[in-house]
């Protein structure tokens, strides 16, 4: 076994504030070669969490294919959305996939 040649997350940034026993995550962005993750939410000092994270394909991961560009551009915007709620000890995670797909079939 060996460590990966490149880190899974190559860069990221977070904007947050701390007030009234709570960390408010205004924006969170993490980037890798394959995916980017963005989100926001909060975690209080009692360990309660409410986060929304959305995954996006990295722009250069998928080559441009003219006939399917419109469909792909819509699908790649929000590949997965994670809603994380509850406590840090027992989080509840809800996963939704391609919420924007309904726009394509209308």
Task: Outline the structure in words.
This protein has 106 residues and is mainly beta. The chain has 2 helices and 6 strands, in the order E-E-E-E-H-E-E-H. The protein has helices spanning 69-77, 101-105; strands at 11-19, 22-31, 35-44, 48-57, 80-87, 91-97. A 6-stranded antiparallel sheet has the order 1-2-3-4-5-6, with no helix packed on it. Strand 5 (80-87) and strand 6 form a beta hairpin. Mean pLDDT is 79; it is low at 101-106.
Quickly list its features:
106 residues; mainly beta; six-stranded antiparallel β-sheet; 2 helices
Helices and strands, with pairings:
Elements: E1 11-19, E2 22-31, E3 35-44, E4 48-57, H1 69-77, E5 80-87, E6 91-97, H2 101-105
Antiparallel strand pairs: 1-2, 2-3, 3-4, 4-5, 5-6
Helix/strand-derived class?
A: mainly beta
Quaternary: single chain
Number of discrete helical segments: 2
Beta-strand percentage? over 45%
**Biggest sheet, strands in spatial order?**
1-2-3-4-5-6
Outline of the structure:
By secondary structure, the protein is mainly β. The protein has helices at residues 69-77, 101-105, and strands at residues 11-19, 22-31, 35-44, 48-57, 80-87, 91-97. The radius of gyration is 17 Å and the shape is globular.
């Amino acid at each position: 076994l060996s460590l990966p040649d490149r880190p899974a997350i190559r860069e990221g940034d977070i904007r947050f504030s701390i007030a009234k026993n709570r960390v408010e995550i205004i924006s969170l962005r993490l980037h890798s070669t394959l995916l980017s993750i963005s989100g926001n939410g909060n975690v209080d000092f009692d360990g309660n969490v409410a986060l929304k994270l959305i995954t996006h394909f990295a722009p250069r991961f998928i080559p441009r294919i003219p006939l399917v560009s419109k469909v792909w551009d819509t699908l790649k915007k929000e590949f997965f959305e994670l809603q994380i709620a509850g406590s840090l000890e027992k989080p509840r995670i809800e996963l939704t996939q391609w919420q924007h797909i309904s726009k394509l079939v209308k």
